[in-house]
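[recover] target loaded
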């Protein structure tokens, strides 16, 4: 017994003294280096791209293998967004996409379709934006044939069941009614309306336009925009290239149409200047300003992406967030956004602030933009933005399906095929002179439109250089 106690005491002493002996030796032999002083060779990041395959009927498929789990993921984008809504029937594109999933097919009733998808524990998700309808669908590889069959039936042969149409119309009307309760969503919708006054991108659904939609309109819209050349797909998962092609060919290969895809024209670049108010008795205000900027396929895109990051989309260190929110506490959220599309781009700023701080916050944002346009961007800001954007780029390639889906979007937007592989290099090549040049070129207050939604009676005096405000009514209150 005594021997056991001595043994335990000896082991305990070893555990107590050995770390001290080790670290004292380490101090003598090893000199600690601060983390930011550690030297290491530059990291090399290479992208493994998905394979582009074009079927005979015009569907483009991006395929990439992913054997980690026995799943298959499908994404698709169709050129059938809300900009294709006929006048006076705004909302038709969104309702069509909704009914592809819920309205049954020519050979499968909606209740049976729901039952079969529930049994498979899988369901495609359809979403609508201004220029496209997106579909995302994941399922077990063992269920691939059945899932692709159902997806094909939904996309190619929708039934648009009358009772489901009525349900969809009712839900859309309720959605429109509720937008008045979301000031930020309402403000951004009205901002877009003002930005695109003579373009379908500025048209939105109203109760009147929704009530104009009939089943014949859904059938006509589907026939007009849902065809193979208007469709790009991304396929990844636990399947070979041959399996992927055979599966897509089996369920979508007999879908033929002679029409080529036709990308929408960019909006007319009118000067969207002016100050607009939407009066709403709230304790907080939403302020948005914007102007047209470089398109996605413009050489200035890379420099402007960096400029936007420095001005307001780069989070806490960015100029707007740091000045308006962190330093002055004038807004609980503030920053900038850059929507780059093929053929056009939009740059904007925003602040969500209390009523009394509205004009002061807007004035600070204008000063920041004016300062940037005067050439005040510094080299350390450029270096920080480049590093941040390039680090974020890596997360675009977390999974094979994300890579394939990115390539799908690039194909859809008609960007250069080497966009992904050249992005990092072109960001690195941006110089301080490039940054100052694009700031002078695009940041022009006399071409900037500003919209403020809030209690306008308590904003205070409007600065002279802002111009005279024009009061507008939200779309849902328009008589037409």
């Amino acid at each position: 017994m005594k021997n056991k106690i001595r043994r335990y005491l000896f082991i305990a002493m070893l555990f107590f003294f050995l770390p001290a002996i080790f670290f004292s030796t380490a101090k003598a032999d090893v000199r600690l280096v601060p983390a930011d002083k550690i030297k290491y060779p530059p990291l090399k990041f290479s992208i493994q791209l998905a394979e582009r395959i074009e079927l005979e009927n015009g569907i483009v498929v991006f395929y990439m293998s992913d054997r980690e789990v026995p799943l298959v993921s499908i994404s698709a984008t169709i050129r059938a967004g809300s900009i294709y809504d006929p006048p006076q029937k705004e909302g038709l594109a969104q309702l069509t996409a909704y009914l592809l999933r819920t309205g049954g097919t020519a050979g499968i009733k909606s209740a049976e379709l729901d039952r079969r998808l529930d049994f498979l524990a899988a369901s495609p998700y359809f979403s609508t934006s201004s220029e496209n309808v997106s579909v995302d669908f994941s399922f077990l590889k063992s269920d691939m044939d059945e899932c692709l069959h159902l997806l094909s039936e939904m996309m190619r042969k929708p039934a648009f069941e009358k009772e489901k149409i009525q349900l969809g119309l009712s839900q859309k009307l309720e959605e429109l009614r509720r937008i008045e309760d979301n000031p930020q969503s309402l403000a951004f919708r009205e901002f877009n309306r003002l930005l695109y006054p003579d373009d379908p991108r500025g048209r939105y659904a109203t109760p009147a336009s929704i009530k104009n939609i009939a089943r014949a309109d859904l059938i006509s819209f589907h026939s007009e925009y849902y065809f193979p050349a208007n469709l790009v797909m991304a396929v990844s998962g636990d399947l070979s290239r041959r399996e992927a092609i055979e599966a897509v060919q089996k369920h979508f290969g007999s879908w033929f149409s002679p029409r080529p895809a036709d990308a929408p024209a960019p909006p007319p670049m009118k000067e969207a200047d002016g100050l607009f108010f939407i009066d709403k008795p709230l304790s907080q205000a939403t302020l948005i300003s914007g102007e047209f900027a470089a398109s996605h396929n413009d050489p200035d895109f890379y420099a402007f992406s960096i400029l936007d990051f420095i001005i307001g989309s780069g989070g806490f260190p960015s100029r707007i967030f740091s000045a308006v929110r962190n330093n002055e506490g004038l807004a609980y959220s503030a920053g900038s956004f850059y929507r780059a599309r093929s053929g056009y781009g939009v740059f904007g700023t925003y602040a969500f602030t209390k009523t009394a701080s509205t004009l002061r916050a807007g004035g600070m944002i204008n000063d920041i933009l004016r300062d940037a346009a005067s050439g005040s961007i510094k080299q350390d800001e450029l270096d920080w933005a480049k590093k941040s954007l390039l680090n974020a780029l890596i997360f675009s390639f977390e999974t094979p399906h994300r890579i394939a889906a990115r390539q799908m979007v690039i194909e859809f937007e008609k960007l250069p095929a080497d966009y992904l592989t050249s992005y990092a290099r072109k960001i690195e090549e941006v110089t301080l002179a490039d940054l100052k040049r694009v700031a002078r070129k695009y940041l022009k207050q006399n071409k900037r439109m500003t919209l403020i939604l809030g209690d306008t009676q308590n904003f205070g005096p409007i600065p002279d250089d802002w111009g005279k405000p024009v009061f507008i009514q939200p779309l849902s209150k328009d008589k037409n």
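[recover] notes: The mean pLDDT is 90.
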